[in-house]
Write a structure and sequence with these properties.
two-stranded antiparallel ribbon; TIM Barrel; single chain; alpha/beta; globular; about 280 residues; 8-stranded parallel barrel
């Protein structure tokens, strides 16, 4: 089982570059960055975590830019979005950004995606809350076409473009792995439909491990090889017993969450999590 760390990078936290170097030195497989373009002050949508929305949601840096800076100072650690709000991004431009980053990082990009929860935020991008998952599926389908075809074209409900040419293509073939975030069963169904794996969030009042047998059964019923579907538990517990349970259940990766804090706070936590990997 592989181990990763995630952080809301801000202008007051350890820099993505310094964190990437430290995480790679300690043997972490992946580094994850979330996304919020902004937080509307109306605050109508409740935070799924409950209570007040933490400050770092307002302050987080762009994940792809953070990944690029991390790529420039590392060699092996995977650079991941957790999650990229595809519903708030232009798919043609996002496809180019991801492909560029995959080329410059020597094939280390992993794209975690999700439909988001903040209705007001996505509305500012012209996205309707009710149709966001259809939009996400279609934009991902369009990006796959862009990544794999020399003269891509696409015609859909939300995304339409005539034949065009665009490079670079991703170094990873056919494209960087796509992990779909979300709870069971709907997030799992979307992962099976158009993802390379599922990325459930731990610690939200349900036991991820209880759902894994059904997830694998659903994959088989959809003619997907269950063994080929990556399972990444986001927000993993750092307890030895929990990590062993994840490993015994065939989880591919667990991701620990770091606070948006300076190096003096974050580096000791990295050391603590690294000990759990031994």
């Amino acid at each position: 089982m592989d181990y990763g760390v995630a952080i809301f990078s801000t202008d007051y936290s350890i820099t993505p570059a310094e964190l990437a170097v430290a995480a790679e030195e300690r043997g972490f497989e992946s580094l994850w960055f979330p996304e919020h373009s902004h937080i509307p002050l109306s605050r109508l949508s409740p935070w799924p975590g409950g209570g007040d929305l933490p400050k770092h949601y307002y302050d987080c840096m762009d994940p792809l830019v953070a990944m690029a800076t991390a790529a420039s100072v590392t060699k092996t650690i995977r650079l991941c979005t957790g999650i990229c709000l595809v519903i708030q991004r232009d798919p043609i431009q996002l496809a180019k950004e991801v492909a560029t980053l995959d080329q410059l990082s020597n094939g280390r990009v992993l794209l975690g995606v999700g439909g988001g929860w903040n209705e007001e935020e996505m509305a500012d991008h012209g996205t309707e809350f009710k149709s966001r998952f259809r939009l996400m599926a279609e934009r991902i389908a369009a990006m796959k076409v862009i990544w794999t075809e020399s003269k891509p074209e696409f015609s859909g409900e939300f995304v339409n473009f005539p034949p065009m040419m665009t490079w670079p293509k991703p170094l990873q073939k056919p494209y960087p792995p796509i992990l779909v975030g979300g709870a069971f069963p709907h997030g799992a169904k979307r992962a099976i439909e158009y993802g390379d794996g599922w990325m459930p969030l731990g610690g939200r009042g349900w036991d991820v491990l209880d759902t894994l047998p059904r997830f694998r059964q659903m994959a088989a019923e959809a003619d997907r090889d269950p063994d080929s579907m990556d399972v990444t538990i986001f927000g993993a517990e750092d307890k030895v017993d929990s990590l062993k349970s994840y490993q015994d259940a065939g989880v591919n990766r667990t991701v620990f969450t770091l606070p948006s804090a300076d190096r003096d706070t974050v580096l000791p936590l990295l050391d603590q999590y690294a000990k759990q990997m031994a």
